[in-house]
Amino acid sequence: MAELPATLAIQLCYARPDRQFLLDLTVAPGTTIQQAIQNSGIIQQAPEIDVSVWRVGIYGKLKTLDTVLREHDRIEIYRPLIADPKDTRRKRAESRGAKKSA
Question: Does 8-101 carry CATH code 3.10.20.280?
Fold first, then answer.
């Protein structure tokens, strides 16, 4: 039977308009996404983070906070969208159409 590693190397990333965070961390096997975020200190550096509402993922795939981490996982904290992308595209297309007919 394979021996479990003593620690796992992971990354935690979060970006806001003025600053990006990319933290290299080591955690114990069995650590969840929520535990890693809480223990990383990112909340103190970026107090706007609210993982009870915001989504999180690993390498672009949405995950729940109770997901157990594996070696080399990259936790991503996603900010809520300010505007709906569909509405934004629709408004851009309408303004292009208005310009062409003018």
Answer: yes
81 pLDDT exceeds 80? no
pTM of the predicted structure, to 2 decimals: 0.75
- Residue 102, C-beta contacts closer than 8 angstroms, at least 6 positions apart: none
Residue 66, token pair as written in the block: 């109770």
Q: Structure tokens of 65?
A: 């906070």
**SS3 helix, strand, coil % of the chain, rounded to 5?**
30, 30, 40
Asked whether 4 and 69 are in contact (CB, 8 A), the reply is no
Comparing CA positions, the residue from 89, 97, 61 lying closest to residue 76 is 61
Domain ranges of the chain: 8-101
Segment holding 33, helix H or strand E: helix 33-40
DSSP 50: -
Q: Look up residue 38 and give its two tokens.
A: 């809480």
Q: What pLDDT score does 37 carry?
A: 96
CB 20 within 8 A of CB 13: yes
